[in-house]
Each structure stands twice: as C-alpha cells, then as structure tokens.
C-alpha cells in the first residue's frame, strides 16, 4: 500500500475540504499513478470530488459511517471492515488518498509515500505528517523542481523503513 498526496511547504494538504492548489502536472501524475488500481479514502474526501462522484477507472473503497450504499464504490462502516476490504484487494496497487485522518491511520502500513511538494503556503487547515522529521521514513527520490500553474513543485518518494502488517 502507498500513500499519495500533495503538500504545501508546511505539510498542509487542504483547506475547507478542498485542495489548496490546482496543479495540472500533479493531477496528471495522480491520475496516471492510480488509474487501474484501488484508492482508499474517507467520506469527506469522496464528498470533495466533483459531484461527490468516485474516481473513474479505479476501485474506490471509502470509510464512512454516514454515506449511503452506492454502486460506484465500496462503502465500509468500521475501521475493521476498512482493513478487511484493503486486504481483500488481489490485483494492482492500493493508494491511500486522504483525508488527514485516513492518512494518519494508514501511513504506518504504507511501504511508500508519493509526495508532491509545493513551494508555497496554502493556508491549510488540514495537514499530512511531516515525513522529513519521521524517523521511520526516508526520502528516497526527489525530482527536479518544475513549474505548474505558477507553482514550483517537486515529486518525492519516501520509503517507510518500518512497515506494519495490516491488522
């Protein structure tokens, strides 16, 4: 399992249940990376998508106690069901895509974190753990800085040196 996220320079990931930046290069990377695979998220992340629709061409697993059952994704009600649904994925990769509580819960079980770093302060109210100060994570690769939509970004890969087995 891998986490995928974009963060501002303070490790912020969102404001008002929305992304802080429109980053075409990051959106392309996210789509190219997750298409054909499984994405796991919380209910607020699903609600934040246009029309509250699931992501196309991906298996969507959502942890929510309030969302109604629906045909375009798997809704699970408990953390135990969430872990069971993730363990049941038999093909492709599993990507954790948010929100903050889901990242905190699943990050110890992720072998990698694919982090797009934005050299800006987005005024976040929601944050991702600072992997640069987490002794379990090591920065493996840091891409060249590039510009997208007026922002400087870098694609980085962090390796979890102490991956926990799913319960």
Structural summary, described in words:
By secondary structure, the protein is of the alpha/beta class. Strands 1, 3, 4, 5, 6, 7, 9, 10 and 11 form a nine-stranded mixed sheet that branches. A two-stranded antiparallel ribbon has the order 2-8. It has helices spanning 24-34, 43-48, 79-87, 100-106; strands spanning 2-7, 12-14, 38-42, 59-63, 74-76, 94-96, 112-118, 126-127, 137-142, 146-148, 151-160. The two termini are 14 Å apart. The mean pLDDT is 97. Helix content is 20%, strand content 32%. It contains four helices and eleven strands, in the order E-E-H-E-H-E-E-H-E-H-E-E-E-E-E.
Could you list some keywords that capture this structure?
167 residues, alpha/beta, 9-stranded mixed beta sheet
Layout: helices, strands, pairs:
Blueprint: E1 2-7, E2 12-14, H1 24-34, E3 38-42, H2 43-48, E4 59-63, E5 74-76, H3 79-87, E6 94-96, H4 100-106, E7 112-118, E8 126-127, E9 137-142, E10 146-148, E11 151-160
């Amino acid at each position: 399992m891998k986490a995928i996220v974009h963060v501002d320079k303070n490790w912020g990931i969102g404001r008002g249940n929305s992304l802080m930046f429109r980053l075409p290069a990051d959106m392309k990377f996210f789509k190219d990376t997750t298409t054909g695979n499984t994405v796991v998220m919380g209910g607020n992340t699903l609600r934040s998508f246009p029309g509250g629709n699931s992501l196309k061409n991906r298996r969507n697993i959502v942890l929510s106690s309030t969302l109604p059952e629906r045909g375009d994704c798997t809704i699970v009600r408990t953390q135990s069901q969430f872990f069971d649904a993730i363990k049941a994925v038999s093909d492709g990769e599993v990507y954790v895509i948010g929100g903050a509580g889901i990242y905190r819960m699943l990050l110890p079980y992720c072998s990698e974190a694919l982090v797009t770093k934005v050299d800006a302060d987005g005024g976040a109210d929601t944050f991702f753990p600072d992997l640069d100060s987490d002794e379990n994570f090591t920065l493996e690769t840091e891409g060249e800085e590039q510009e997208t939509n007026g922002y400087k970004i870098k694609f980085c890969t962090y390796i979890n040196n102490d991956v926990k087995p799913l319960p």
